[in-house]
Amino acid sequence: MRTPPRPRTWVLVLVAVFALLQLANVTGRDTPDSKNYLSYALSLRGEGKREAAAVTIAYACAGEASAAARRQSVDVLRFDDPDPGRRVAAECRKREWHTVDARLRAGQTGGHTVPFMPERFMRIFEARPGYPVFLLPFITLFGVTWGVWLAGVAVTAAGGVLVFLILRTRRAPTFVCLTGQALYYVLPCGTTAMRPMTEGLMLALTLAAVWGCALALDGEVRAGAWLVGGSLAALFTVKHSQALFLGLCLAGAGALIAVRRRRSGRPPGLGVVVVAVAGGFGVLGTLVLARLLHYPSESESLQDLLTHHFDRPDRTHVWPEFLRLQGNFWVEWLRRQLWEPLFVAALAAGAWGVARGRRAFGVFVLGAACTGVLTQAGHPDITIWGDRLIVLAWLLPVLGVPLLLEPVLRGRVALPAQEGSDRAHSLR
Length: 428
Fold this sequence. Notes:
There is one protein chain. By secondary structure, the protein is an all-alpha fold. Helices cover 71% and strands 0% of the residues. The protein contains 18 helices and no strands. Helix 1 runs parallel beside helix 8, helix 10 packs antiparallel against helix 11 and helix 16 packs antiparallel against helix 17. The chain is globular and about 70 Å long. The two termini are 19 Å apart.
C-alpha cells in the first residue's frame, strides 16, 4: 500500500509553489524606504557612502524603469510608444545622485545609511539594524537583485511555515494547517512580506511569538517563554515600536485571561502567566534600551509624520494636532472599509475562528493582530499605499479562518493523512 505524503512534504510543496510564483516580479517591489535598508546592508559589508549609493541607486532605478515599462505596455494610449525604461532609469539616477551629492557635500556622512533624506529622518532607519543584517548574507552571496528577492522569498516562506506550526500546536488537522500556510502566502501578508522592507521580518517574528504562546498553553512553558522572549528581543532590532506593541498586547492578553479565570474560580495557568510576564519584560526592556541608545522619541516620530519627513517647520502643538488627525483618519478608514468590507469581514471571520475551542489561544492571537492596528494608529496617513502598516492584523484571518472552516474541510478533504501519533507541533 502506498504511503501518503507526510505533512512536511506538503509544506515544502507550498513553499516551492510560492517561490516559483514570485519569479513573475523579481524587481519593482521596492518602496522609497527600501533604499535606506539596502544602503545600510551594503555599509555593513564594508562599502563606503558613494559605493553604497551607487549600488542602491542602480537597484532602485532599475526597478523604477522596469515598472514604468510594464505600465506603458498596457496603457491603451501609449503601448506602441518606445520603451521608456532607459529614459526613466537615467532620470531616476540623475535625481537621486543630485540629492545624495548635495547632502554628502553638506557633511551628512554619519551612520550606516546613504543620505537619501534629511538627517533627522535617517536616524529612524539607523535604529533598525535587524533587517539590513538579515539582508546582508543574501546580497553578498547572490548579488543585490537576486539577493533582495531571495531574502523576501525566505522570510515570507518562513512566515507561512510558522503559521503551519502554530495551527499544528493548536492540534488542527494537517489540511487545516496547510490552509493557513496557503492563506498567508495569498493574502496581503505574503505580498507585503516580499517587499524589501521590515514588514516581512516583523510578521515572521510576531508569528514566532504567537507560536511561543501556543507552546506555553500546551504545557511546553520553557520553550514558549524562550520563543516569546527571543522574538521580542529580535523585534527590537527590526523595529522597536513593534516590540513595544507586541509586548504590551501579549502582557495585556495574559492579564485578561488570568483575571477571567480567577473570576471563574480557576487558576490562571503557568503558561498564561509566563507569556504575560515575558510580554511585560519586553515592554520594559524596549523602553529602557530605546532611551539608553537615544533612539528617536515618540514626539520626534510625530514631527516626522506631521511635517512630511521634516520638509516643513516643526509643529508647536504636535499631540493635539496628532489626535485630531487620528480622529479624521479612522472615520475615513472606516468609510473606505464599509465601501469594500473584505478586510473587516476577514477580521470578523478570523476572530470567530480563533475563539472556537481554546479561548486563551484566541486572546493571544487577537493581541498579536492588534499590533497592526496600533502601528497604523501611530501613522495615521491615508496616503500610504498597500495598507502595509496594518498588515499584522491580517494574521487574525490567516490563523482564524482555517479553524473556522475546519468542520467543513474535515468532512470533504481526505488529503493529506493525519498521523495520530504526531506531536502537535511537529512536521513529521
